[in-house]
Design a protein that fits this description.
The protein is mainly alpha-helical. The chain is elongated.
Length: 982
Amino acid sequence: MNLVERGDEFSIMESMLDSCAVGHGGVLLVSGPVASGKTALLRAFGDRATAAGALYLQATASEAESDLPLGVMGQLLLGAGLLGADSRRAARLFGLVADAAQPRGQGELPDVAMNEIPELCGIVLGKARESTVVLGIDDVHHADRQSLECLLYLARRLDVSRILVVLGENSGFLAGNTRLRIDLLRLSGCRNIRLRPLQRQGVAEMISGCGEPGWRTRKLVTQLHQMGGGSPLLTRALIEDHRASGAADGPGTADATRGPGADLVPGEAFVQAVATALYRSDLATRRTAWALAVAGPDVSLAELVEVLGGSRESLHRSLRALNGAGLLDAGWFRHDAGRAAVLRSMDPADRSRLEARFAQVLHDHGAAATVVVRHLMAAGTVDAPWALRTLIEAAERALADDEVDLALACLRVARDSRTDARQALGIRAALTRAAWRVNPSSVAQHLPELFTAALDGRLGTRDADELVGHLLWFGQVKRALDVLRAAEQHGTEPFGQPGPGTPHRHDCPRRWMTYAYPGLPASARACLGDDPQHETPEHAAPEHAPCRARSPHQRAATLMKAVLDGARGTQGTRGARRVAGTDEEVVVRAEQILQSTRLDDSTLTALLTALNSLLLADRLDTAAYWCETLRKEAAERRAPMWQALLVSAKARIELRTGALAAADESARSALTLVPADGWGVAVASPLATSVFTRTAMGRLDEAAAQLSVPVPDPAFQTPDGLLYLRARGHYYLAAGRPYAALDDFLTCGDLMTRWEFDLPALVPWRTDAAEAHRALGDTGRARALAEEQLALVGRRSGWARAASLRVLASTLSAGHRPPLLGEAIEILRDRGHRLELAGATDELARAQRELGKSGQARALARKAQRLAEECGMPVPPARPADARGPHPAEQPWSSGSRRHPDELSNAELRVATLAVRGHTNRQIADKLCITISTVEQHLTRAYRKLDVQRRADLAAKLSPLAGPGGREGPATRDACDRLHVG
């Protein structure tokens, strides 16, 4: 047998064997921690003694047989080869001693037993006269008392006999046989050797002994020595796991993945070795290891002593034993795998009781609730009256510390505990608060019960406030209004308006709903009781008023009012106050919110509003900086919903700057962090960015796939719904469906006008509709819409003005385009709108080409192409300088959109197309703002030119055009009905 780092000890044993052979017997006590190699050493020495001609009698004591009289002596004599009279005499003596010891229990040995021990030992002494006798007893600390008396009897007669007694002892056990050690160690022929943990050299030798000499690298040896703690048992198990993991990777990769450079990963062999080491230790040491694994690294000695119910001295002894066994280093596990293996060795019922005991002790010692609940949850159920309070307190603390998983786990255990109706309701409200941060889809199951409680007046102000927000998130506007009404009926404190001296902590949904849901019907706005057109003295903020006197949502509502006032061109009239709606004021208010507001559940909406305001004010760099700062914070605080919303805002900013690939990735990431079903009405925002981006990149099939994702109808009462309609319109335009595009753009205009929410910086619906009219060949209507948009934005140098200038220029003759496009390019270059800049530059190149300025046209075309490539747009091949005819975007209709393009006029084609879609003559007349008679005349001419007899035959002559019907005039009231948006 290959012994590692045991050469000195083995030499001592051989020397004592040689002395014994010449008549000088002795006793050798081999001590060491559990699994330190004592058994291997005794077995190797037994082979050596047998080879030298000695009679080797071997026994292994066991804790289970420690009460069996003469159990160890019986094992020894089995190997003595007793025959005849000796065998019968030994059997008789065993019987006498056993009978005498049975009724006396743990008391002193009876006289008859003491009288028979000399005769029993005489058998061994007789064998020693024939040859050298070696008695090897492993785990002697478990030996029965009668056998120990026999050993002491023999030990006192070894000076003149050829008997060598070799005892293996676990030094971690309490000295249950103090007399044995004292009497043995005072004898002149007794020696005690202690086995030490393996050193690095020993670990390297063990690797070679296991047949893996190529693994003897400094890295692997260091890892084995550190994890195994020098324990031969644990080290050998780790080597086996290392070999097994390499074999599992396959024969072709084992050397590469589990060779010298591979990290050591403890596996099943290590788990079994830890369990073996524990169950070969005494009960006190085993219980200490379990308690330490359950408690964690921050447990104090006083807490461990109280949990174990022992003494401090006993605990220190057990910790020393575990350190010696290689499991611990300075009182804690050498590796997390060691702790996990100890926990796996526990019976589930024992662990549950130990967890409950720790929870009680830690609670009594005043530990933090978040520490106590980890044991409460592991214990399963604890009926103590303090347990429920601790779970709820820990959930609130964990949520404040961004440990959402812990908060949810605490609340689920609390929910399943025995609670009254009031406590159960509070727990359910807390569950919705915590779950929303991860994925709001899991919140929906709790809303019906909370809604019922709010109507009955059983929900507190904070919980009802949050319930309104959750209902709005899922588009349940009517229910949110019902909650607000119920709060007033039951006399609940007004939302978001704490009493005197109370800090503003919560949202203000009653005022905020006006801005978050501008599409609310008039009856709903009346219910809210707030007029978005003015600030009441209660909510007004004089310039000298401190910002901390107002909640983030109040300031966000004021900010949104400033944005709307700026769009309407209104001016303040209070004293010397400056104009309220300027971009500068919007930027100042937005940055005040961003700088002074900490990110949390109650402030996230206000922060997003500030970001969007910066975006609308064309402060793209500032918006990008704050968005990235908040996104990183959300990621560090492990809040997927926060991250998703901020990444969605980041995508919108990247789209404006022309970083199409980045915007597409951000939109995709937002829908990955939180799936679409968790977004509620807000899903329209990332979908809109994704559709617009992929359309601009020419990936129409992918854009169409995004349009198949369901969007809740209430989303079209929000600004995000407007973004979705605009993105879908541009997809239709790129797909050659200008009527469908025009329908979406005009619907945006109809909604924004009706809501008094006409923000060209958000959705420039007039210029979008103008582009659709250009695609249909109606340049006059396109020019009128572009001029209307330009008049609305005024002289403010922003993205909306630049887009209006570009579209207006496209409707004019070549000579009138350069001044408008030049101004547009200057604005876009200054504000960083590269996507729109590429389009404006291309338009200017076309104008210069038509004016015969080929050199300037080529330079501008190259610049436009470079900008398009930087943005990620598909770049078409350059057109020849002498190309004739209108640009494809200016053609009345694409060449593949009808079977006979030269036969029908534009007016006839529009009427025929609507007829194919199933519209009646009256509906067609209303949509196109013409008389029914005119419709009939257009249809008659279309039938004649296409040689058809009825409407059903038109479909075969015209290419199919999906989507809503086209229209030329202003949007009508049925736009919302067609889209189910309000």
